């Protein structure tokens, strides 16, 4: 459900709360079962796996909230403007090649767009859809094969 809600912050927050409560239930069960000496081997395998499962939720949420700093966008935009100015100023007495002008504008626009697109991991061209789809498929597999 976390992956299916898109960019709706309220639904994401609700899914994270639900995930935390489920993780807490699982962790308590692992802790309880690990106290039994007959479960020693299973506990040694299960506890790190459950811990990793809980940690990945925090890691993925941190990645979702990570943003390109405003200073980087400002510097990149400034560099684009300065390089466009210098390019135009340097060719003021020469004949302009329209293909180069269009290519320059296209390349700088694409570079700026891709940097800005990094801020939105759930939408745009640079996204996490493939990795999210793997987790959704794994969930469906577990539900179908109970």
List the helices and strands and how they pair.
Blueprint: H1 9-34, H2 40-65, H3 70-90, H4 98-117, H5 129-144
Helix pairs in contact: 1-2, 3-4
Write up this protein:
The chain has 146 residues and is an all-alpha fold. It is 75% helix and 0% strand. The protein has 5 helices and no strands. It has helices spanning 9-34, 40-65, 70-90, 98-117, 129-144. α1 runs antiparallel to α2 and α3 (70-90) runs antiparallel to α4. The protein is elongated and about 85 Å long. The two termini are 19 Å apart. The mean pLDDT is 82.
Mean pLDDT reading: 82
Determine Rg (CA atoms, Å). 25 Å
User: Quaternary status of these chains?
Assistant: single chain
Q: What proportion of the residues is helical, as a percent range? A: over 70%
Large-scale geometry: elongated
How far apart the termini lie comes to 19 Å
Kindly estimate the percentage of residues that lie in beta strands according to DSSP. Answer: under 5%
User: What ranges have pLDDT less than 50 throughout 5 or more consecutive residues?
Assistant: none
The count of strands amounts to 0
What order do the SSEs take from the amino end to the carboxyl end, as H and E?
Answer: HHHHH
Number of helices: 5
Give the class from helix and strand content and strand pairing. Answer: mainly alpha
Give a short account of the largest sheet.
none
